[in-house]
Amino acid sequence: MLDALIDTLELFPRGLVYVGLAIIVIGIARVVQGIFTPYSVTDQLNTKSNLALAIAVTGYYLGTVIIILGALYQPFTLITDGSLGFSADFWKEVLQVFVTALVGVAILNVARIVVDKLILYKFSTSSEIVDDQNAGTGVVEFGVYIAVGLIVAASITGEGGGPLTSLVFLGLGMLVLVLFTLFYELTTSYDIHDEIERDNTAVGVALAANTIAIGMVAFKAVFGDFVGWTEGLVSFVTFAVIGFIVLLVVRFLFDLILHPKANVAHELAEERNLGFAFLEGAVVISASLILFFAI
After folding, report:
1. What whole-number distance in Å separates Cα of residue 243 and Cα of residue 180?
2. What is the pTM (predicted TM-score) of this model?
3. Based on the number of CB atoms within 10 Å of its own CB, is 88 exposed (0-12), middle (13-18) or buried (19 or more)?
């Protein structure tokens, strides 16, 4: 037990290095976001108290942290080996984590713009968040940031492969995210864009939760060591299809079993019932978590 305590104390200072590194990356991520947005985030948050943007930015920082964790989750022996101290090799790996995280942050910003255009394609998300302070749109961006962060993190972890395999599976993960959100809209009895544009936060929350849920499914489909294109692609497609089916069935069961006396679509679209939105969100995210650990 004493040896274990000594090993832990030896690892502690190096763990703080990565904590400091994460703070630096988050600071850089804030600057990068300013470059990718046509408005002043600071002015919107400090001067105009824009809640919609605050929700979206919260998702951005959470997505950034998820990417940092993906960069840290590498087969590095130096991160866990307590006998090597602050060697040159250790700092080399710190630099590698730093660069990988920065690349991930850049991808997060670009991917968010692309996904926004494909998910909420009927209106300008920037206009809704900045000009109208539409919390529903802000919540959707929150979900998109987290989902994209999960997919980016999964694409940069694991052994085998290289930049090409990471890019391919990143693209596949993003494709799953977009296709599912389009599929989600097809399976609802109301127009998601119209409802969110009319400041229906409940519909935004439900969509954001489903986006995070499919992001977790995509994370599982992409995550892992690369052992070959055939096995990797078959595994990816299999898990993605299972995820689509499970999340659809779970939503149906939520309507049929958990709340048989209420029509969830009516509660979300007509009543704007945030309670039902959070309940649906909790159910689909829980289902994706169970799916993640069960398969």
Report:
1. 10
2. 0.88
3. exposed
Tell me if 15 sits within 8 A of 92, measured CB to CB: no
Query: Which tokens sit at 217?
Result: 């499914």
**DSSP type of residue 83:** T
Q: Where are the alpha helices (DSSP H) in the chain?
A: 2-36, 41-42, 51-72, 88-119, 125-130, 135-155, 163-186, 192-197, 201-222, 229-253, 264-269, 274-294
Q: In whole angstroms, what is the distance from residue 281 CA to residue 279 CA?
A: 5
Whole-number Å distance between alpha carbons of 236 and 225: 12
Question: Is the pLDDT at 211 greater than 90, yes or no?
Answer: yes
* Count of C-beta atoms within a 10 Å radius of residue 234: 11
User: Would the pLDDT of 207 be above 90?
Assistant: yes
Q: How many domains does the chain have?
A: 1
Report pLDDT for 6.
46
Report the C-alpha gap between 81 and 7 in whole angstroms.
Answer: 9
Q: Is the distance from CB of 136 to CB of 199 less than 8 angstroms?
A: yes
Range of the domain at 222: 2-294
Residues 6+ apart with CB under 8 A from 242: 291, 295
Is the pLDDT confidence value at 11 over 70?
no
**Beta carbons within 10 angstroms of residue 253's beta carbon:** 12
Residues 291/246, Cβ–Cβ less than 8 Å: yes
Identify which of 281, 270, 115 has the alpha carbon closest to the alpha carbon of residue 200: 270
Nearest to 269 by CA among 218, 219, 204, 225: 204
CB 213 within 8 A of CB 280: no
Smallest CA-to-CA distance from 196 within 248, 120, 144, 118 is with 120
Structure tokens at 133: 């302070």
